[in-house]
Model the fold of this input.
Amino acid sequence: MTESMSDARTLPSGAFALPEGWQLLPARDVEPSEWVEAYLDELVVQPSALIRAQLRYALMTVIDLTLRMPEGARHNFALIGEPLDGVVHSVLSMQKLHVTNDAYANLLHRTQNPLPADGLEALNRTVEEITLPAGRAIVMHDFVVTTEFESIPEPATERTTLALFIDGTDTMLDFAMYAQDLAAFDDMPAYLIEIVAAIHFTGDAS
Done:
């Protein structure tokens, strides 16, 4: 059974809400193809065979992306919007981590001074420190392009990360949002900040 993301979503000791159109993706122990077929079968309005195939491919692609992320207490979501369009506009991943006292300073330094990645180049990177109701946060935004390709280059990917260090705890919530649809967001960092700022913690967030 798939889940609608219009409702509050439970996190460890907290909850957050995503705007309409976000879909919780399956956990690592769920077979991706079976989950995708179940999601497609449960759509209220069934798409055409062509749109179904496009949406199936898009969902399998983003699920593969999430499976290549480091394992941990992670929740992944896809912004599908209107399923009859057959498009996944964005991916959002959230991970809960326990960190040391110097984690904030270390992460800020690494974010401001990133190491080069083979075959990738980050353009127009910005890094900002902000304060949210739950604690301090580091926000990074850039565009990632592939510099090594065999024939046709892959489209650029817009990326925003937000690391929230929850006051009074050793807990960090690490958010990462990706979109190859560069028109998906007017302001991706502001969009993600608004979501994270609205997190409501229901007790000990550690």
